[in-house]
Design a protein that fits this description.
The chain is mainly alpha-helical. 42% of the residues lie in helices and 7% in strands.
Length: 202
């Protein structure tokens, strides 16, 4: 791209510099726009509306590029992995009697009692209908389970510790409080055995 300035002798040096500065900035802007156009064509993406491209000496804000359509993704069927009952996700591939036992506060006898109360067959959890799930949730919510049961037990143990009764003292010491022997067993509360140096077996 060539430019030529004709001077008649009266053009001063400052005006020449100003014209050169304008020409340089104009060529830089054209180069930037051309590079952005090439990048947009390479990526096959639509150009922002604020981008102006020089076409045949005129500015144009509308540029059309071929946009590739994405391949059709394969839609897989959604499968529910767990059912939520009593605020707990119970397994989906087990019978309801055993799935209910994953809830803290529901054991085998209580799970059977719940099924008897609502006259429900002991079928696999994923085979339950929406109405049966609603009935099951309502029946389970009648019992003290999960967080409420944990808080209830923690408050009772704290009360025993506060009044310094025998059971409270055993809780503080970390020993069984129901009359079990502690010479050989109760490793669950005591932890692993610790060897004492200098002690000989008789």
């Amino acid at each position: 791209m060539g430019f030529r300035i004709q001077t008649n002798g009266s053009l001063e040096l400052e005006e020449i510099r100003l014209w050169l500065w304008r020409i340089l900035h104009f060529t830089d802007a054209v180069a930037v726009l051309q590079s952005e156009e090439k990048m947009a064509q390479t990526l096959a993406m639509p150009v922002a509306p604020s981008l102006a491209v020089i076409c045949n000496g005129h500015f144009s804000n509308r540029v059309s590029f071929p946009v590739l359509s994405p391949p059709n993704p394969k839609v897989h069927g959604l499968s529910i992995q767990c059912v939520r009952v009593g605020g707990v996700e119970i397994p989906n591939n087990k019978r309801i009697e055993y799935s209910l036992q994953y809830i803290h506060g529901v054991g085998r006898s209580r799970a059977r009692q719940i099924l008897c109360d609502i006259n429900m067959d002991n079928k696999i959890t994923k085979d339950l209908s929406e109405e049966e799930l609603i009935t099951l949730r309502d029946e389970v919510s009648k019992y003290m389970i999960e967080g409420d049961l944990r808080r209830f037990n923690a408050i009772n143990i704290k009360r025993l510790k506060d009044i310094q009764c025998y059971r409270g003292i055993r809780h503080i010491q970390g020993l069984p409080c129901r009359g079990q022997r502690t010479k050989n067993n109760c490793r669950t509360l005591k932890g692993k055995k610790v060897a004492i140096a200098g002690k000989k077996k008789k």
